[in-house]
Amino acid sequence: MESNKQGSSDSFWARIRRPSTKYSVLTLAAVFFGIGMLFLGGFNAAMDVVGTLEFCGTTCHEMRDTVYKEYMQNIHYKNRTGVRAICTDCHVPRPWFQKVWRKGTAGLDVLVGKATGVVDTPEKFEAKRMEMASIEWKRMTASRSIECRACHDFDAMDPKRQKPAARQKHDAARQEGKHCIECHKGIAHKLPKEYKGDSEEEE
Ligand code: HEC
Ligand code: HEC
Ligand code: HEC
Fold first, then answer.
1. In a mutational test of the pocket of ligand 2, which residue from 74, 184, 202 has the highest number of ligand atoms less than 8 Å from its CB?
2. Which of 25, 129, 134, 151 is the most buried (most CB within 10 A)?
3. Domain residues of the chain, as ranges?
């Protein structure tokens, strides 16, 4: 009985457990594959959590009481067609791997670092807003507003349905190779009070 049981388990479990070269390679491969998948899965899951609107907007009160609140009143939060842009759409560079490794992350770190702790009251936040906004403007200028253009495209706009001012500016912008953030600052949050406007915009 005992030996029989032993024998049958030997056929599968024991063989798999036995540290023979043959199986340990297989087992090791499986284990590493498993760990790899877990790591990737966990990493992706973590990215998914960290990337949600709720996480970015409400985890720390610095964001919750300022930019998040403003954003909740913004067209990018709620609009006629129901297409939503969340924090990461505008603040995390594309494509995905860039999001994780590249300069963009450093930029994001700076932004988050500036916002958390340092600016722990809405008043302190306002005092630092210009500095933080400038970081994002600089980054979006360098990317030629690629974050915006992931959703918006001059080609996809119907000028006939835009205000004459927009139509005219967009026409010229396209010719001159200008991009969104050059003219559209403060499209999701309040503008810093120190911001006096770009010459292009304020005429
Ligand atoms: C995830 C997609 C997405 C991203 C990214 C995005 N937008 Fe939008 N944007 C929208 C949607 C959707 C609307 C609302 C469209 C509507 O209902 O008319 C909108 C509206 C706008 C409007 C019109 C505002 C108004 O009051 O009529 C401007 C200007 C604008 N976006 C600029 C930008 C700029 C600049 C960026 C980059 C910093 C950007 N958007 C990034 C999706 C996006
Ligand atoms: C040279 C300046 C300039 C550039 C560059 C520019 N815009 Fe505009 N845009 C304007 C002006 C001016 C208006 C009209 C005033 C307003 O609504 O803010 C406008 C209006 C809009 C509107 C509202 C249109 C309407 O009539 O309801 C959207 C959406 C928009 N822009 C998106 C973009 C996006 C996306 C980009 C980049 C692909 C971009 N703009 C680049 C100047 C510019
Ligand atoms: C449609 C694009 C867009 C979305 C969505 C968006 N932002 Fe922004 N954000 C900007 C731009 C552009 C700036 C640069 C300053 C400006 O123009 O208002 C900025 C600036 C900031 C700043 C610097 C302080 C300031 O007001 O300039 C913080 C912090 C910030 N965003 C956090 C967030 C958080 C948190 C969310 C989500 C709740 C979010 N943003 C959603 C476009 C966006």
1. 184
2. 129
3. 1-50, 62-203
